[in-house]
Amino acid sequence: MDDLPADDDTTELEPVVNNLPLRAVTHGGLTVEGYSRAAVQTYWRIPELKIGFDLGGSPWSFMGTPTYFLSHAHLDHMAALPAFVARRRMMKMSPPTIYLPEPVKADTERLLRAWQRLDRGRMVCDLVGVNPGDEFELSREHVVTVVETKHTVPSVGYIIWDRRRKLKPEFQGLPGDQIRDLRLGGEEVTHEVRIPLIAYLGDTAPPGLDSCDDIYRAKILITEMTFFRPEHRKAKIHKFGHTHLDDILERADRFQNERIILAHFSTRYHTSHLKRAVLKKLPESLKERVILWS
User: Fold this and answer.
1) Whole-number CA gyration radius for the chain
2) What does pTM read for this prediction?
3) What DSSP letter does each residue of 236-285 carry, written as one string?
4) Rounded Cα gap, residues 238 and 147, in angstroms
5) Under a CB-based contact definition with an 8 Å cutoff, are residues 261 and 222 in contact?
6) Angle, to 10 degrees, between the axis of helix 105-119 and the axis of helix 81-90?
7) pLDDT tens across 184-204, in order?
8) Can you say how many angstroms the Cα of residue 72 is from the centroid of all Cα atoms in its chain?
């Protein structure tokens, strides 16, 4: 992948550089940016946390995001990985860290080596294989845990947590000098408190939603709802690792999330029809929190 000539007028590239669909919403100090359509492309990022989810496409504005969490290896969720890695090197950015299901790590390494031979440029990144139950530290304030999802290929979801040290209840109300003396004496006066900020599931049948109660507690939940029409058989939808509107409705009382982003709609649906039909069926308790992402 060649660098642009030094005298290139990059302003002429703007329509091309910004050629991928992109939507954004902000809630609780966090911005969710991205796009998702089944069999087309899925890509998300949370700029405040410097992380992204899936790389079915790679908007130029996402290039500065150094850490990505991939849910599975279907092309509409991962096809842009080689371009993303190569572009960061071209822009003289540090190699990105890519988390992905452990069963696909070796094949992904081979894929990048093949592209390196084709592109004649190094494909440098830190690939980290993950399994459900794993935990990784992102920063002093944030950690990520891996959850199980159910799809037709190896797949996982992710929960991003905010973590803080807080004074233990039994020491609250004590004068500062007493707390200091306890600490100097070797007493552990604080404990870790975690709040689930974002849950991301990628593609999954309903068991993925139910795999971890914290998914329903995250401030922002990003999950799929590929199908919504009553005539689409749920048994077949679940077999192919996807979720139907009815699955969401059946769990309406479980969602404690402040925002629920439903995405990855089938291309057989017209967006305006989908929104009218889904909003008509959603209970009021969900309607005010759900965002139909298209």
Assistant:
1) 21
2) 0.90
3) HHHHTT--BHHHHHHTGGG---SEEEEE-B-TTS-HHHHHHHHHHHS-HH
4) 18
5) yes
6) 50
7) 777 775 668 899 999 999 999
8) 11
